[in-house]
Amino acid sequence: MATVSLQGVRKDFGSHTVIADLDLEICDGEFVALVGPSGCGKSTLLRMIAGLEELTSGAILIGDEDVSEKLPKDRDIAMVFQSYALYPHMSVRDNMSFALKLRNQAPGQIDEAVNRAAEILGLTEYLERRPKDLSGGQRQRVAMGRAIVRSPKVFLFDEPLSNLDAKLRITMRAEVIKLHQALKTTSVYVTHDQVEAMTMADRIVVMRAGQIEQSGRPLDLYDYPNSVFVAQFIGTPT
Ligand code: ADP
Ligand code: MG
């Protein structure tokens, strides 16, 4: 069953078409890596799925429901960005509970959700700290914690690890996969790192100039790229 269904999705900024009538079905529980050169529309596409950017035309479905007109907070989706975008004046606990308070959840439920997320992410002992007193990896975990407290059906990641050093990036890749599996979510993960795409994803979607160039299992794309473009993108791991 498709959890996320993009149907003829188009985005124009003025006369510039950034996403061109794109169709994509993402299955329940799938981990999809979205790759492609800078400026090809990856972030714009994620932002449209999250409801942060309006569609010029087309529709986005989550499950059976057309969410194209829905506000971000009414979509069963959470997004993790590359810049952590944590609230510096709030503790880790408050950063993580903020979205739940916005949705008027009961305090008991909020505590339970935050404690569970902290446990999954190894943040239990850091809950009362401020972001500035955390390492880069811990901050990125808090950013993920903020996303998972709502137990979203769909997780969107926009190059979440690209600010981290190489060693931490490897650790965090495993963390992201662990989260995806533990929460049984459906994940769309934008990366420009071929190794991440090859090792983390069930399926890689290669984008080029606002369209899908090829989509398939990592090894299939590696062995059978259908264009030089895909071969260059997937076939030469760095
Ligand atoms: P990617 O994430 O693949 O690098 P983006 O989705 O950020 O690409 O951008 C795709 C294209 O859309 C780029 O040409 C960018 O300049 C343009 N773009 C993105 N956001 C806006 C905006 N708010 N207004 C005008 N153009 C935009
Ligand atoms: Mg981007």
From TrEMBL:
- Per UniProt, residues of the ABC transporter domain are 4-234
Gene Ontology MF terms in the entry: ATP binding
Q: Which UniProt keywords apply?
A: ATP-binding, Nucleotide-binding, Transport
Q: Family, per the entry?
A: Belongs to the ABC transporter superfamily.
Protein name (database record): Sn-glycerol-3-phosphate ABC transporter ATP-binding protein UgpC
Phylogenetic classification of the source organism: Bacteria, Pseudomonadati, Pseudomonadota, Alphaproteobacteria, Rhodobacterales
Which gene is annotated as encoding this protein in its UniProt record?
Answer: ugpC
Full protein: residues contained? 1 to 238 of 363
